[in-house]
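To: structure subgroup
Subject: Chain for Friday's discussion

All,

I'm putting the inputs and outputs inline so they're searchable in the archive.
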Amino acid sequence: MASHTVAFEITLFCLCLGMAYSVDFNFPAVFNFGDSNSDTGDLAAGLGFQPPPPYGQTFFKTPSDRFCDGRLIVDFLVDAMDLPFLNAYLDSVGVPNFRKGCNFAAAGSTILPATASSICPFSFGVQVNQFFRFKSRVLELLDKGRKFDRYVPAEDSFRKGLYMFDIGQNDLAGAFYSKTFDQILASIPTILLEFETGIRRLYDQGARYFWIHNTGPLGCLPQNIAKFGTDLSKLDELGCVAAHNQAAKTFNLQLHALCQKLQGQYTDANITFVDIFTIKSNLIANYSKYGFEQPLMACCGYGGPPLNYDSRVSCGQTKVINGTTITAKGCSDSSEYVNWDGIHYTEAANQYVASQILSGKYSDPSFSDKMPFLLKLKF
């Protein structure tokens, strides 16, 4: 196995959100909104399918409805908070327990409303609506007595809980298939207005603690390099598609400004902006330092080096192409790879990213070192 001890040598962090008033990091529940980067089963349950093996092989030993070989960033984050993995809102099988929160994230989702051609119908506005229905149903059940207390959040969890967001990647990445670079940049304010509307609706419903991830370096995903990076002049010094990364940077600058604006308006709220782009870019640029061997090549795919990605056959699939049967198989050791299937990160990479998030160095406000709540990382 590749060694990742360098990335995790610090096992004790003083962790809290930079806040308008003092509060520790002891959240009773987490409510998560996003896309495949944090989907723990929503799209699979909603559309009635399951990602095939080797998805899930590293940690769960079987497909877990996550688009990863194991755990996602959100899994590591809630685990560090001593909370259980979040059940997907739409997953009704397996006695799901929502006592400590709920995950509304769905793979393929966008901030902008879904269209007839969208991969996922559960866009950000729909996820916010799902949360409102969830909250309403929970309060109804709590009114019926204590027999449901073990399965649903306490009423004050909606006010004291942490609201996490990781969405926007699909709005940008998908746009490159039909729009010019300038058109994509021009669309960012409209995308963020939709996001702002959702945040304001949640605030009006009592949400006060917001943790907002920016979007990662889209140009470093094998899927995008394979499609848009065939002209080597379009690649940056890391071998990533420069235009995709520039769009992500522009989006992130405006998202950061939005977070600062909302914090100024909602002085009783705590809005933390997390710079995922810098964390992931640093991982790709310095992959060997953190125990990885392949920064851009997919672990599970078809075609071999340099990307091991073929858009015609996705991870775990077998297809007949031009009379030849081909299978997109997993690599022997996913911990050596940053990328899992051409689009998503491996568990090992997600673990690294989570450790960096929890260091507090990549957040605005940065995590204060004056809080009494010490967190021991379990990974």
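Points worth raising on Friday:
The radius of gyration is 20 Å.
The CA atoms of residues 14 and 370 lie 8 Å apart.

D.
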